[in-house]
Amino acid sequence: MCGICGVVGTNADLIDPATHRMMRAMPHRGPDDEGYERLPLGSTDHADIWASLGFRRLAILDLSMAGHQPMFDAATGNCLVFNGEIYNYRGIRAKLESQGVAFRSSGDTEVLLAALTAWGEAALDELDGMFALAFYESKSRRVLLARDPVGIKPLYYARTRGALLFASEIRTLLASGLVSDEFDPAGVAGFLAYGAPQDPLTVHAAIKSFPCGTYQWLRAAPRDNDVIEGARVEYWRMPAALPNRRPEEAAASLREALEKTVREHLASDVPLAFFLSGGIDSAVIASLAAQTIGAVNTFCVGFESPGMKSELDVAEITARRIGAHHQQVIITRDSIVDTWDRWLSSADRPSVDGLNTFIISGAVRAANAKVAFSGLGADEIFGGYGNFFRVPQLLRAARVAAVLPLRLRQAMVTGLLPFIPKRYRPRLRMLADASANPVEVCLSLKQMLDRSTLQQLGFEPSALLLDDHFLDEDQLRLCNSANSDVFRAVSCVETRYYMGNTLLRDSDTNSMAHSIELRVPFVGRRILEEAGLTPGHIHLGGGHTPKKVLRDAVGDLLAPEVLQRKKTGFTLPLGDWMFDQLRESCEAGIDGLAAVPFINQDGVRRLWKQFVENQRYSYWMKPLLLVALGTYADRCQRTYLDSSGALKVRPPRTRLV
């Protein structure tokens, strides 16, 4: 787990200092080592074209300098910078050694470099891991950018005249001094609709997210003093389900895949820790790890709140069952203010998610571990969310409603809307549209702010070149292809739009804020493909049981209190805190929205007033949308480069009462 950055361009006087500024902006991603190289791509009578590669290292495998990056292949001059881990690197290493390749290190970076050198982009099909990489091929003078199948590791890029920049973080690109921080209305609209910016957009017009499961070659265009971007190639997709697969076969195969995946994920030369909640997913990972390495270190977050029940008691049952060294992290009313401010200030982009990961990662770091494990991903691929059941129900209701004339359906819905709570109105509107498909229904359920509210804030999807769901139409096509299978369609939305754009990005940011590598075995390629091979009706036990195949595969590992516990989802009592201890910080965030020029400030004030006056009925994520965006925008205004080129933030001005 590290941070990468680079510039491909013509002006060495610009790209060298830009790359060094980017490296200095992400010490949290790599406190153990750093490296830099400038490599030739081509030349003309007027200019040379270079690839400048920067790296910050968090040493996990082979802690010696043999793991230093950028890493060179001595025989070819090829070079690699890479963020992540390749969990099946031992098997790939054995294959390469059988072909005569010799290694001097014991880690995965040299194996990845050798695989790319031997097989080119075809090596990506051999990898089971999390990664974002830039590979320089000396002979062809090209640079390969690539990202893991579902985007566990982030990779952002920006295009300027004569140069292309890439980095692991948005703030890193902004620190280059070559990329504008101007806000993008389309990216901001996606954030307000779903709680996180939606790929490929970010909240900055100049910065985009490199697509997951994709690679692209970059090369020089000497005649034009520019960079040519080759075609982006999607190298991975979820496999088609096996229609004749039996439930017992699916469970047995999944158990075998999970045991192998967790064993491979345990590879580390530094101490490990495991996030543990009251749910099935984290308990499975910790239990399988304990079977392999003995007693593990587990951590659970709890809180003081009379109105909500934490997961501490149930998590402790699992910890005792597997003989773990267990630690509880308690968030008190007195400690939340400082924690909240540090969380918001560490954000690489606005988001309403990740505070719990930030808190527990800090505890893991304080315990001197450098790698943590999470159960993230199981709900999205095995059918753990309510939407896997709600979407089919709504589609059936829409088909029944379709027997009525369209105008009558629309009139009935319009008449009923004022009497229906706002959170249920999208479901009612679907009944007026019998043509709705699973993807559209699921997206409507995922939206935090509906279209009318976003219009009050100044956002109209057609004017932003977005579809009616405030999404990029090209991205939406990727899920629409799954519409023939309702389970697969819902899983695609939950995986690409929620897990990919929210959970994985925020888990990366909030763990790396404490220099912690977060591993997510359920999102390993082997597990993804295993889940894809099983038909949806088997995953849901004929439409009655969430994650039925997963439960059958690992039920013997879990205490009855965990296996039979109704899914609740982990959340902190932010709704209580935001209108009490955190009120001043939240209102400072609302003030910060003045830095977003295209947002309707009157609409902001009206919406915030509604939240405050109806706080008992306000879903806390909705006001947090405004707070997170305003806090981020204010911080962007106060960000500057100091005399050494490091990225700094001026302290906020004192608010006048």
Contiguous helical run count? 26
How large is the radius of gyration? 25 Å
CATH architectural label of the largest domain = 4-Layer Sandwich
Distance between the termini: 44 Å
**Helical percent range?**
40-55%
Largest sheet, if any?
Answer: 7 strands, antiparallel
Return the average pLDDT rounded to an integer: 90
CATH fold assignment of the largest domain: Glutamine Phosphoribosylpyrophosphate, subunit 1, domain 1
For the secondary structure, the number of strands is 20
Q: What would CATH call the class of the largest domain?
A: Alpha Beta
Shape: globular
* Structural class label: alpha+beta
Summarize the structure in words.
The protein has 657 residues and is of the alpha+beta class. The chain has four domains: 2-234, 4-Layer Sandwich (Glutamine Phosphoribosylpyrophosphate, subunit 1, domain 1), CATH 3.60.20; 247-383 and 492-563, HUPs (Rossmann fold); 387-485, no CATH class; 574-649, no CATH class. 42% of the residues lie in helices and 17% in strands. It has 26 helices and 20 strands. The strands form four sheets. Strands 4, 5, 6, 7, 11, 12 and 13 form a seven-stranded antiparallel beta sheet that branches. A hairpin with a 4-residue loop joins strand 2 (33-43) and strand 3.
